[in-house]
Amino acid sequence: MLKIWINIPFPDSALSRLRAGIGSNQLLISNQVANILSAAGADPLLAEADIAFGQPDPEQLLSLTRLKWIQLSTAGYTRYDRPDLREILARRSILVTNSSSVFDEPCAEHALAFMLAAARDLPAAVANQLGPRDWPQDDIRSRSRLLTGQSVLLLGFGAIGRRLAELLHPLRMNIRAVRRTPRGEEPIPVHPITDLESLLPNADHVVSILPAGASTNHFMNAERFGLMKPGSVFHNIGRGTTVDQSALIESLTTGNLSAAYLDVTEPEPLPPGHPLWTAPNCFITPHTAGGHADEFERTVDHFLENLKRFQSSIALKDQIFR
Question: Which of 133, 197, 261, 273 lies most in the core, judged by the most C-beta atoms within 10 Å?
Answer without folding.
Answer: 261
